[in-house]
Amino acid sequence: MIATLCCLPFLGLAQEKKKKTERKGELYFSWGYNKEWYTRSNVRVNQPSLNNDYTLHNVRSKDHPGWDEGLLSIPLSIPQYNYRLGYFFNKKKGLAFEINFDHTKHLIRDGQDVRISGTLGGRQVDSTINFSEANGFYYYLNNGANFLLFNIVKRWNWQESKNGKFKLDLLGKAGIGPVIPHVQNSLFGKANDPGFQIGGWNMGVEAAVRATFNKWVFLEFSNKLDYARYSDLKVYQGKARQAFGTYELILNLGFTINAGKKVTEGN
């Protein structure tokens, strides 16, 4: 009995040693590259001074990855890149807020036959044109369709090594935000003054697998669906609007660090 009482202070110390102090939050940043596929879309063009108000129907578009043309020989920001900046404000529940940006390039395919309907030069039209640069037509969001999202993120731990130096997590993300396109086009041989603008909004969902090595470096592979609506896009003496869906494959390399106030928890 006396021996047990004597040991109680030491047992208390042992219990204290089992408790650990760590940061409540977790900050992360990643950079990577992406590949896109787009749905067909309509482009509505309004040029009041030219008496034009017409629609290009069901146009086909493509991306321009760039990273497949010699990534190490060009600036990092030239290809279709993306970055994520996030903060797990509750690591225990796996909840985070994330700024999610995709520099995506959207080009209407050259050489396709496109139906045009509406008013052209004050006259009603419903015809087909060959949408090609040789005929005075191009339409590029080539320095970016540029999706910016403010995401809520949920993380599920899938696998973890015994020493904790390797983790495999599943992440789900959803958000909404503005689009910041760079608009460059020519319609019937009349080119706009290209440049960046705030041009609408988008929303997206993303599913990712993240492998974390040595507790702070990670590789993340994502599948993403995005829907974007563009409005007031600059064309020659007028505006255009367009909406399309996007499927993306994304590969990012990043790092993560513990952040926020310290909390003490038992093992």
Attribute tags:
single chain; 267 residues; mainly beta; 8-stranded antiparallel β-barrel; 6-stranded antiparallel beta sheet; 67% strand; elongated; disordered N terminus
Topology of this structure?
Elements: H1 2-18, E1 19-38, E2 41-47, E3 52-59, E4 61-62, E5 81-90, E6 95-102, E7 106-108, E8 112-120, E9 123-131, E10 138-141, E11 147-160, E12 166-178, E13 182-187, E14 190-191, E15 195-196, E16 200-213, E17 217-235, E18 238-266
Describe this protein's structure.
Strands 1-5-6-11-12-16-17-18 form an 8-stranded antiparallel barrel. Strands 4, 7, 10, 13, 14 and 15 form a 6-stranded antiparallel beta sheet that branches. It has one helix at 2-18; strands at 19-38, 41-47, 52-59, 61-62, 81-90, 95-102, 106-108, 112-120, 123-131, 138-141, 147-160, 166-178, 182-187, 190-191, 195-196, 200-213, 217-235, 238-266. Helices cover 6% and strands 67% of the residues. It has 267 residues and is mainly beta. The two termini are 29 Å apart.
Instruction: Note the run of SSEs as H and E.
Output: HEEEEEEEEEEEEEEEEEE
Structural class: mainly beta
Separation of the first and last Cα atoms: 29 Å
Fraction of helical residues: under 10%
Q: What form results from the Cα inertia axes?
A: elongated
Largest sheet, strands/sense/barrel: 8 strands, antiparallel, barrel
Tell me the number of helical segments per DSSP (H or I, 4 or more residues long): 1
β-strand percent reads: over 45%
Overall pLDDT: 90
* Alpha-carbon Rg, integer: 26 Å
What low-confidence regions span 5 or more consecutive residues with pLDDT below 50?
1-8, 13-17
Adjacency order of strands in the biggest sheet: 1-5-6-11-12-16-17-18
Care to count the β-strands? 18
